[in-house]
Amino acid sequence: MTADLTAALSGTRILPVLTVPSATMAAPLADALADGGARCAEVTFRTPDAEQVVKAMAAHGGLVVGAGTVLTIEQTERAVGAGARFVVSPGFDPEVMQKCRELGVPVVPGIATATELMRALRAGLDTVKLFPAEPLGGTSMLRALAAPFPRARFVPTGGIRPAHLSGYLSHPAVVAVGGTWMATAEHLERGDYAEIRKLTAEAVERSAP
Ligand code: 3PG
Asked: What residue intervals traverse the membrane (predicted)?
């Protein structure tokens, strides 16, 4: 991973995951997250405006903005073209990994099994997204999976809510915890940026050592 992503993830150990319906929401959302103390954000490629949202949020300057739910080479190119400084995928796709390598952008692949983790490690990727963390078994799955792989670092994501945070963050192999709870579809629909700021600040505070 590049130094800026490592610094951003390890700075707060919180990775807000965002599915943003409209690029008009990008600026107030970036302000709310940064004001709440977030250092980075993952914009999922699940909406038609995702590319524009990455572009607008990257312009904020206070956040290291990456792209999530990146499933194809074409999405990888669009995400990086829009200014994404890292790429997250729900799974391990060798072609997406290779494209990220070519483009010189750090990538965090999703893994759910020891075999997938071994493939990521063999590809030189030490930091993986444990996904979907809660349905997989939460912190007991994390502990069991991390034990044989001392080199691996994890960004558990999927079904995580504030009550789970301390359990994940107390594991030394967890770089950061990701999730949507700080900025949900409902918050965005209501334009409730004050609540996004508040939930982000609470998460950042809980993650402090
Ligand atoms: C992801 O793509 O990382 C997940 O959809 C996160 O969503 P959740 O935090 O609501 O499970």
From this structure: none
Ligand 1 pocket residue status of 204, Cβ below 6 Å: no
User: Residue 20 in contact with residue 50, Cβ under 8 Å?
Assistant: yes
Contact 86, 105 (CB under 8 A): yes
- Output the CATH code of domain 3-207: 3.20.20.70
For the Cβ of 179 lying below 6 angstroms from any atom of ligand 1, the answer is: yes
User: Which atom of ligand 1 is closest in space to residue 44's alpha carbon?
Assistant: 2
Looking at 51, 55, 129, 134, which residue is catalytic? 129
Distance, CA 122 to ligand 1 centroid (Å)?
Answer: 26
Distance of alpha carbon 182 from alpha carbon 195, whole angstroms = 8
The model's pTM: 0.96
Q: Is 55 a known active-site residue?
A: no
Active site (annotated) includes residue 99: no
- pLDDT, tens digit (0-9, with 9 covering 90-100), for 19-60: 999 999 999 999 999 999 999 999 999 999 999 999 999 998
* H helix and E strand count, the chain: 11, 9
Distance 39 CA to ligand 1 centre (A): 18
The Cα 90–Cα 68 span in angstroms is: 8
Least Cα distance to 61 among 79, 80, 41 occurs for: 41
Are 158 and 132 in contact by the 8 Å Cβ rule? The answer is yes
